[in-house]
Amino acid sequence: MKNRYDEKEAQAFVGAYPNCPRELALRVYTSRLLGAEEDLVLHGGGNTSVKCSITNLVGEDQEILFIKGSGWDLGVIAPQGFPGLDLAYLRKLRQVGELSDAEHAFLPQRFIDHTHADAIVTLTNREEAEKHLHAALGDNIGILPFIMPGLPLALAMAELHERNPGIDCIILKNHGIFTFGEDAKTAYDRMIDHVSRAEAYLAKRTGGATASPVVDPGLVQPFVVLPILRGGLSFVEESGRRRTMQLAVRRNQEILAALARPDAKELFAGGVLTPDHVIRTKNYPLWLEAAGLDEDETQAAVHSGLARYQEEYDRYFAAQTAAKKVARTKLDSMPRIVLVPGLGVVAAGFTEKDARIAADIAEHTIAAKLAGAPLGPYRELGQDSIFDMEYWGLEQAKLGKAKPKPLEGRTALVTGGGGAIAMGIGRKLLEAGARVFMTDINQERLENVCHNLADTFGSRMVFPLLMDVTSEEAVQLGLEQLVMECGGLDILVPNAGIAHVAKLADLSEAAFRQVMEVNCLGVFQVIKGAIPIFKRQGTGGSIVINSSKNVFAPGASFGAYSASKAGAHQLGKIAALELAEFGVRVNMINADAIFDDSGVSSGLWDVVGPERMRSRNLDPEGLKDYYRQRNLLKTTVHADHVGNAVVFFASEQTPTTGATLPVDGGIMAAFPR
Question: CA nearest 589: which of 639, 654, 528?
Answer without folding.
Answer: 639
